[in-house]
Design brief:
Blueprint (H helix, E strand, L loop, with lengths): L3 E12 L6 E12 L3 E5 L6 H8 L7 E6 L2 E2 L5 H11 E5 L10 H10 L5 H14 L15 H13 L5 E5 L7 H14 L6 E6 L10 E6 L2 E6 L7
Parallel strand pairs: 3-8, 3-9, 6-7, 7-8
Antiparallel strand pairs: 1-2, 1-4, 4-5, 9-10
Length: 234
């Protein structure tokens, strides 16, 4: 196992109150290593999104512990959790979440602005990561001028520009056709080769299993199995 970037131990999460209270997670423990791409798979209602939100410090567990780079989130206030997210976690969503009035370059640079990086270095770094995802030629394009695959590349660039310890991707190929989905997974698998960073992809799509270094199956809030495929596409 590579060095862990995020660990959760015996995590339980209840959602709702009273008669509608449900256990979304039931004693989940896992450790995400750097230098690998992990898939989290399971049916609707299995707890995938809840677990992703806890790993990303968006939700706090009802019981159990979460550690980011060895730092426990127990007792952390909202500002502390926001700092952990900013310093260590990059998010990629199915619906891209780009700002429609900003260019590709500015959408990426925004992630550095909130970290206090000065304009010159921020522009240079944003240009560099856009090149990494193959979009140097589209840095001045607005989201409506980009295809779905291109918008997702911008979203990935924004997630990695701050040198996050882990990239959490929620159905990143869900809105894309097979060709674009394959291209996005190729980018994510290349990013996952970085020994300082881990990538977790939540997905329903079995076509992307060959990209995984590791596949975790969750159902009814419990981890069913945790396996390493025979070979990954890199």
């Amino acid at each position: 196992m590579t060095s862990p970037v995020i660990e959760v131990t015996d995590v339980v999460k209840y959602l709702g109150d009273g008669a509608v209270r449900v256990a979304a997670l039931r004693g989940v423990s896992l450790s995400l290593g750097s230098g690998q791409l992990t898939l989290l798979m399971g049916p609707s209602g299995s707890g995938k999104t809840t677990l992703l939100s806890i790993l990303g410090c968006i939700l706090t567990p009802t019981e159990g512990t979460v550690r980011i780079r060895g730092q426990s989130t127990a007792g952390a206030r909202s500002g502390d959790l926001a700092k952990l997210r900013r310093d260590h976690i990059g998010f990629v969503f199915q619906s891209y979440h780009l700002f429609p009035t900003l260019t590709a370059l500015d959408n990426v640079r925004l992630a550095l602005d909130v970290r206090g990086v000065r304009a010159g270095p921020a522009i240079a770094k944003a240009k560099s990561v856009l090149e990494t995802v193959g979009l140097s030629h589209k840095e001045n394009a607005f989201p409506h001028e980009l295809s779905g695959g291109e918008q997702q590349r911008v979203a990935i660039a924004r997630a990695i520009v701050g040198d996050a310890s882990v990239i959490l991707a929620d159905e990143p190929t869900g809105a894309l056709d097979s060709e674009n989905g394959h291209a996005i997974m190729t980018i994510l698998s290349n990013i996952a080769k970085d020994p300082s960073r881990g990538v977790l992809v939540v997905t329903h799509d079995p076509r992307i299993i060959p990209f995984a270094d590791r596949t975790i199956h969750i159902e009814d809030g419990r981890i069913l199995d945790d396996e390493v495929p025979g070979a990954a596409i890199h």
